[in-house]
Write a structure and sequence with these properties.
alpha/beta; globular; about 40% helix; two-stranded antiparallel ribbon
Length: about 450
Amino acid sequence: MGLDNFTAQKRASGGGAAGGLPTTTANGRARTMFSRGRQINKTFNNIKITILCGFVTILVLRGTIGIGNLGSSDADAVNKNLIEETNRVLKEIRSDNDPDDPADLEINPNATYTLGPKISNWDLERKVWLSQNPEFPNFVNGKPRILLLTGSPPNPCDNSIGDHYLLKGIKNKIDYCRIHGIEIVYNMAHLDKELAGYWAKLPMIRRLMLSHPEIEWIWWLDSDAMFTDMVFQIPLSKYDKHNLVIHGYPDLLFDQKSWIALNTGSFLFRNCQWSLDLLDAWAPMGPKGPIREEAGKILTANLKGRPAFEADDQSALIYLLLSQKDQWMDKVYIENQYYLHGYWAGLVDRYEEMIEKYHPGLGDERWPFVTHFVGCKPCGSYGDYPVERCLRSMERAFNFADNQVLNLYGFGHRGLLSPKIKRTRNETVTPLEYVDQFDIRRPVHGNSGSRS
């Protein structure tokens, strides 16, 4: 059953126009005034924070200059209160409740969900903007400008080790982007509450396209994916006639209709009208609640091997491309010549073999471009694999990539499971010879300019 049938079903059941999917839009909604009760609540919270700071000050003074007028029982009570208050504050941060926020308005179940106002002339508008703003070219030194988009939820992880590996993940991405002249955005905001979870990338991609017309390609990369070939560069000239580049396998997509035929953990969108139209067609299965649940049933019924759960962005894209193949596939490039997405379980235990036999810059199974930790949830409380195995593998992947960066400086990790580093060569009075030999940055030639 195609998307048109899904739309017809929703209309028959009381849905709105063009997809029949409910939404909430910001336009025209009245915001409520803050109540006096919320102001009082805010005042009390400020007082509590002041008291909390006082507790911290007392403990610091007692530990540094030895305040003698606090007995051990009093100090224990202060510590206990401080821990309880800290846990309460963390619990509030992790929740979505904010006493200062106006109450959410009711959602109209018959309204059609959209990512925003329909834009139909983006290519021309963008072309005019680029011609009027030559200081913001979409091609620099002959290369299209890329913006890497990644991110994580706005609240803290369930455990501190999860935050630690999020930090390592962003460090890894910053290193790759710095080496190759790619801009990077790390998002921690839900721009649309209806598209929470794995759907949150869609409104952010659209917003970046419209806010950065100078960017030619938006590259989404999951937070649980790491660059493990710091030399390899995406061959963008290969995709001159395409607008979406995604890792996958055509036989799994068209012959088997598999729900894992493509992977949306790493893909590139060209900044153009076609991409905006695809986002508009992709998003309607994403609003949380009954729509996402009902869409999930359709996806499970039509995609091979898919478990029964609510609609996810990957399954929805596969279903869209299958049911509207003639409309979209001419501009989609399914890439599997290198690892735009590399499944971690078959890679991380082979790193030593890769180091012995091969070298960075290959990007494929010999030296994977991206290692993606699908099924690992170090930031959450669940996952498809034991957390110990995931963390061990993520540590190996990070150090495997980090060694390629540290090599220029004459250092490397003592082992792929060790954060400690060792010197790999001696200092020299002629350092530029090592820069020429070990620098993995690629020189860029050509002139800046705009292309349409």
